[in-house]
Amino acid sequence: MQAYELLLHSTFMLRALAVDDEKPSLEELLYLLNADPRIGSAEGASDATEALRRINRALESGPDGPDAIDVVFLDIHMAGLDGLDLARLLTGFARPPLVVFVTAHEGFAVQAFDLKAVDYVLKPVRRERLAEAIRRAAQLRDAAPPIPVHEPDPDQIPVELGGVTRFVTVDDITHVEAQGDYARLHTSQGSHLVRIPLSTLEERWRARGFVRIHRRHLVALRHVGELRLDAGTVSVLVGSVELQVSRRHARELRDLLMRRTTG
């Protein structure tokens, strides 16, 4: 009855993300979360890198958006980026979700609370103990002052490289190539594949000087070295790479380049 009373006084139900690389543990945690009346929705992620991508999408959505996340229930020992690493990354965000650690290991509690964790729940997870962690998260979320919608750090984008999450500076990206539902980010140092459609990056980075030149390519105007016209075809030189410009985008690109040089 206490849980339902709290729910009635709560401004909204919590939107949760559970992160665990062991499938049975993840499924059990999701089952328990979905059974609690204070949880409005609960999704799962099988590793910290997937979780980071999901959290970035949540931050883009804003606190009232359809992809928002209020609290992350996070395992510690995972392959690649572990739970403590992810929690450290979240402390650098302007409005990170709350974190509850759910782990079989007792020895990391001090580090967890240093990272401002809401709670530290030991496996095997008991329903009553998880309910207490949810109560704490709900209380903190309800008490939080309104925070304006914001975008994630516009200067960096997370990429996965050999199981390690790194951050690429957007200004270093020369052009972007569509590869199905993915996009390949090209820099002078190499390229990185991210699971973001080209159309999403086009909208997100338009104000940062990225422009569509072809159905498969975005280019950063700052990195365009030459505009080439040859027998009715248009191309641009970006670093040492020549990219074709489609007819429908040629006029807009010329106008943007002219404004950049004369502005």
TrEMBL record:
Quote the InterPro entries the UniProt record gives: CheY-like_superfamily, LytR-like, LytTR_DNA-bd_dom, Sig_transdc_resp-reg_receiver
Q: What domain of life is recorded for the organism?
A: Bacteria
Sections of the chain in a coiled coil: none
What GO molecular functions are on record for this protein? DNA binding; phosphorelay response regulator activity
Q: Where is the Response regulatory domain?
A: 15-138
- Which residue positions does 4-aspartylphosphate occur at? D75
The record places domain HTH LytTR-type at: 157-259
The molecule here is called: DNA-binding response regulator
